[in-house]
Amino acid sequence: MKILHTELREDFGLLDRNLIAKELLAEAGIYSVACEPARNCLSIQYDPAMLNNTQLLDIMCRHGLYPQPMTPRPDAPPRAHG
Questions:
Q1: What is the pLDDT of residues 56-74, one digit of tens each?
Q2: What is the pTM of this model?
Q3: Alpha carbon of 79 to those of 16, 54, 71, 75: distances in Å?
Q4: 20, 24, 52, 60: least buried by Cβ within 10 Å?
Q5: How many other C-beta atoms are found inside a 10 Å radius of the C-beta of residue 44?
Q6: Domains of the chain (ranges plus CATH)?
Q7: Are 31 and 46 in contact (CB under 8 A)?
C-alpha cells in the first residue's frame, strides 16, 4: 500500500469531502481517503499493484479533484539541465 498526500486547488467543504471520499472508495485499488488538518489537503491510501500514478491521477480528476502542481522542496538538490 502507498499513501498519496496532496493539496487540492479548491476547498470542497466538509459535506463534499465526505461525498468525494465515498466516491473514491468505490474505485478499485483505493482503500482509504482522509482529509488532513491543513486546508485542502487529502491523503489517499491505494494499492500500487492495481493503480499506477497516472491511473490514480485520472481517477482523482474524474471526481473533480485537481492537485496543486508540485513545487520543489527547499532541501532538494538542484536539477541538472540537459
A1: 989 988 888 877 765 555 5
A2: 0.72
A3: 38, 23, 13, 12
A4: 52
A5: 24
A6: 2-62 (3.30.70.100)
A7: yes
- Phi/psi region, residue 46 (left: phi>0; alpha: psi -120 to 50; beta: rest), is beta
Dig out the grid coordinates for 25 from the structure: 472508495
Cell 489517499 belongs to which residue?
44
70 and 10 in contact (C-beta within 8 Å)? no
Grid coordinates in use for 75?
A: 532541501
What count of other Cβ atoms lies within 10 Å of the Cβ of residue 47?
12
Q: What are the grid coordinates assigned to 38, written together?
A: 491543513
